[in-house]
Amino acid sequence: MNQGILPMAEHSPLPLYVQIRDRLRRDILDGTYQVHERLPSENEMMGVFGVSRITIRQALRDLHNEGLVFSAQGKGTFVSKPKAVQNVQRLEGFGEAMAAQGYEASARVLSIQQLKAPKAVMSALDLQPGEDTIEVKRVRYLNRAPVCIENSYFPMDIGRRMFGLDLSGDIFPMLENLFGIPLGGADISLDAILADDEAQQYLNLKSGEAILRVERLTHNRDGRPIDFEYLCYRGDSFKYQFRIDRK
User: HTH gntR-type domain: which residues (predicted)?
Assistant: First the structure.
């Protein structure tokens, strides 16, 4: 639980509202303030930081825009549940995207196995009928809360090299840096489905709740499909962000 906020360091070149925003952001992300915990009131923060109300509100406005806090009329400002926002203008892994936003991202391996490629996987990875694939099943965590079940499928020559490796981080950097496979692009599709028993178990969902399912097929720079994934996210914990232009 929060033990109260401390005054800021003196002689910082940053504007006061930026210092306050950064202090509060750090306290939120490191767990000093828990999800749905109320922040100190504007009057309390004015006293602690020795600044005007407008400065406090400017800092809080930035945190609102980042999705870190929300306000309840007459009750105050509260810590939001972390929501992963991934911009699909650039191909990047979950951990890469979350680290850039100041979140802690990790993964727990549920299984890694060789199996006959399901029909959709066979088609996506350009495999021959009856050909095997390597399936890696993981739970992804955001600030240590489960947000995604990830089923990834790889051709045998790539996937078999993953046995015995640390798969608690992003696989994209492993493909590039450890395996020497330059990544090209990915095809992505989104839909909403009802959470199955597995999603309910690992994502702490109730029967009948919906989840966001992302299908992502990643190619190497030469255009070969090398990674086909089903990424199933809690609907309240993830958002894909797009930018499109009308030419």
Answer: 14-82
Measuring CA to CA, how many Å separate 68 from each of 3, 25, 32, 85, 209?
19, 8, 13, 12, 24
Average pLDDT over all residues of the chain: 88
| Polymer length of the chain | 247
In degrees and rounded to multiples of 5, residue 106 shows phi and psi of: -150, 175
What is the secondary structure of 52-101 as a DSSP string? -HHHHHHHHHHHHHTTSEEEETTTEEEEPPP-EEEETTS---HHHHHHHT
101 and 85 Cβ atoms separated by less than 8 Å: yes
Tell me the sheet residues that pair with 240: 86
Digit-coded pLDDT (tens) for 36-89? 899 999 999 999 999 999 999 999 999 988 778 888 888 899 988 766 677 777
| pLDDT at residue 229 tops 60 | yes
Helices (H) and strands (E) in the chain, counts: 8, 10
* CATH architecture type of domain 84-241: 3-Layer(aba) Sandwich (3.40)
CATH 3.40.50.880 given to domain 16-79: no
Q: Output the pLDDT for position 12.
A: 73
Tokens of 68: 């870190």
Q: How far apart are CA 78 and CA 45, in angstroms?
A: 14
Domain map of the chain by residue range? 16-79, 84-241
Query: What six digits make up the tokens of 38?
Result: 């109320």
Q: Say what the pTM is.
A: 0.70
Nearest to 21 by CA among 66, 62, 70: 62
